[in-house]
Amino acid sequence: MKVQLFAWARPIGGRSKLDRLVNKLNPYSDEVEQIIDKMDHTYVTDYFPLSANDSIGDVVSRNQNFWYCHGDFHNDQSRLVPQGKKVFVKGDLSLLNCICKSNNKDGTGTVDVYLLDGVCHQVTNQILYLASPRIIVEGVRGYWLSQLSFGHYGRNQRDFLLHVRYCRYCNKSVNNPVSSKKGSMNNNNYLERLDELLLESIDAGDSKEEMLRKERLFMIDERIGDCVNDNEKEAIIKLMEVADRETEGSHSMLVSKEITVKAYVKSVNKINRQKFSKIAKLIGPSRFEKLFDCTPSQVVDLGDAEIAAKAFAER
User: Fold this and answer.
1) How far is Cα 133 from Cα 64, in angstroms, rounded to an integer?
2) This prediction's pTM
3) d(CA 129, CA 98)
4) Which of 147, 189, 228, 277 is the least buried, fewest Cβ under 10 Å from its Cβ?
5) How far is 188 from 190, CA to CA, in rounded Å?
6) Which are the contacts of 202, defined by CB distance < 8 A and separation ≥ 6?
7) Is the bond leading into 285 cis (omega within 30 degrees of zero)?
């Protein structure tokens, strides 16, 4: 069954005046803990307007679909993505639910572990992967910070793309063309080049770490390749990989119950803050803004303690 998809974004954090002042005075500080900012949460529905349903029970009773994407049910305080416009994209419901279950908080695609494999942006992009025309949730707050950190489809992108092949095989009768539509970076020229890179990486037998390294280099080249040299690219990627290992360490401590979920989120947010601060020092504020679509003082936290508490409680 064909459905029309709508991607949404809503703020999940604010920022104090004191935090803004401290960050403006010293945007590169590793010492200042800035745990107030949060990125936008993204999710998907197959109905519009959002206020049409008051609860997930209403959605189910009307045979409609809500994809949580590591979040809660929402019916207000959200805007359409991209750029607040009502974009008509379509997908096949059987394929979509094979990729990621709707109306189910466990439906997170292959972004299994929150803040380790990815966050809501990666789950949303997975759902939209088989939409026609293709879109990504570019433009939401913190998007390129999360993309460089986790990749477009999460750190388990290898498993995701293999699962897409499986879903397509199981739904062989489904015609799911990917159209080509020029425009901003949120277009199929960019996405087709990305797909080619990732699929070639799978065929080459690359590990998920090797795939993510290639994807990060691809994003750096696409966004600031004309103004960084190879040594700077390598330095950016190494800073990312150090943060990956540190995040894995924090997650291991969470699994072994050495730290709480709240401490895990605080630790990972600090790891990422320090990572972005070091990258800003390396390439300067102008190139940093071009790469991440925000200034060093506008960096937001990738993790939210409330979302994480629910995500790990439901595992």
Assistant:
1) 21
2) 0.88
3) 12
4) 189
5) 5
6) 158, 161, 162, 211
7) no
